[in-house]
Amino acid sequence: VQFSDRIAQLLDRVDCRLAESVEDREAIFRLRYDAYRSEETIAPNFTQTFYDPYDDADNVWLFGLYIDGELASSIRLHVASEENRDFPSRHVFPEVLEPELEAGKVIVDPTRFVTNRHYSRGNFGLTYATCRLAWLAAGYFGAEHLLAAVRAEHQAFYRRTFSHRSICEPRPYPLLAKPISLMTTDYSRVADRVHQRYPFLRSTLFERRMLFERYLTMPQVVPANETTEVHHAA
Asked: Cα–Cα distance between 77 and 80 in angstroms, integer?
């Protein structure tokens, strides 16, 4: 079975949903804590959860990915523009990102990407399936910047998969023990090349709407012009 086919098979098994209930959010915060503690990137705490105020922002999407009904991974996405500037990476890399907002650019900022070790071992491609949500958001909202605020050792994955390029050297990041670098990619410029190499990153307009349409009434986060596409939908 080809690499992309294996990822597509996994996507068929994954249930992706927005974390809106207290129970779903708490489960994600616990998974975060376990994942970050296992790499010793955060200090221990009594609640054994990892949460910050950005989880309650108006422009946030907090997703959980489930396999056989169990939480397997999670990712948090902020969609920012000149009118809605609140997102985590802006406060760590202001001199890089503020000018882009002033220029009217749309930014998708994925953070708090974590996987359940039990499921990541048994399900090849869970990392791709989870990061795919950020890619779909960049396409849906026409983002000029799909960011990756990651440790230096993770840069190769984003460069290879989404054609990210580094725009800032690693620096201290709030609440994390290890420095974080900043990368970006422009969806419209690289999408054709990325989709040719990784067909499972393609999506239908229907899928993107199901994931992100809850904010259509917000003028500061407006989806890009869409054309009908026939692609694999998770």
From this structure: 10
What's the rounded Cα separation, in Å, for the pair 94 and 141? 22
Scanning the structure block, which residue is given the tokens 């999408």? 191
Please state the rounded mean pLDDT for residues 30-35: 96
Which contiguous run of DSSP H or E holds residue 17?
strand 14-18
* pLDDT for the residue numbered 223: 60
164, part of any domain: yes
Are 138 and 187 a contacting pair, CB within 8 Å?
yes
Query: In this structure, what CATH number is given to the domain that contains residue 102?
Result: 3.40.630.30
> What total of structural domains would you count in the chain?
1
In a domain, 230, yes or no: no
**In the prediction, which pLDDT does 232 show?**
39
The answer to whether the CB of 226 falls within 8 A of the CB of 187 is no
In a domain, 123, yes or no: yes
pTM over cut 0.85: yes
